[in-house]
Amino acid sequence: MKNSAQICHLTLRLHLFSSKVFPRRILRKSDRVATRVSHMPVDRMRWGAEEWQFADLYMPDDPSPFEKGAGVPCVMLIHGGFWKEEYTLDLMQPIAQDLAEAGVAAWNIEFKRWKDGDEGVWMDTLSDVLRAWGQLALLPGIDIMRSMAMGHSAGGQLALILAAKAERKPWLAIAQAPLTDLIGADRAKLSDEGDALRKWMGSSPEQASETWSQLNPIDHPPKTSVLLFHGEKDVDVPLLQSETYARIMKAKGADVQKIWLPGDHYDIIDVASDDWLVQLNAILDWL
Fold this sequence. Notes:
This protein is α/β, with parallel strands linked by helices. The chain has eight helices and eight strands, in the order E-E-E-H-E-H-E-H-E-H-H-H-E-H-E-H. The chain has helices at residues 93-102, 122-136, 154-165, 182-187, 196-201, 209-214, 239-251, 274-284; strands at 42-46, 54-58, 72-78, 105-109, 142-152, 172-176, 226-231, 256-261. Strand 1 and strand 2 form a beta hairpin.
């Protein structure tokens, strides 16, 4: 197993940027069209030799109401799936399209996930996420001052760790039904046979307590504001995960805005749902 101290070397040496606030644009159901933006041009970019080291960039087709001199704001999307190889960035594709349609660029990333026989890959996962975050800063037309990170489920855990550890902090971190308490999630045996976390980590909490703590969002306050979304009917990642994070971060003085939604774990990433519309408007409220 890899040394947990190596995690410190994954921080990218990028400059910090200040943020600006722009007027809100409210979207309603009447604004949404029946045909989604599947025709939207997508640029697939690679940053490494491995087959999973790529991301898809979605840019607005039309002039964005949020564009400034530096470009358009962008959200880096980190998909969920308990870090398993069978789940891919396709989970976040509809959200990427919807953001671009609303005038916000989306950087939908892939990263190393575990599979049977190839476990304990947390270091590669985190490295890929940080490298993708660094690559975003090099893209033309992107306002890096307003770059954000958003993750769902296990991707939410990665977004929160990024918000706590990346040298160039996101302007905003957005966590959708995130795994925030890895020890609690392991104890509750979330996902499949309850061992997905241990397979990604390559150990139990008892075997590598320091490593588990290094990757546990509740142990690391974010360096930026957090929008925390969770469905009240979520049985895959219980609401308790977000409630615990919000309570602990409030005690530590972090800026965490929580919004509980009526749906479940998948409604939160369903662009046809009211749950997603609430999230989209909350994100646009920052621009």
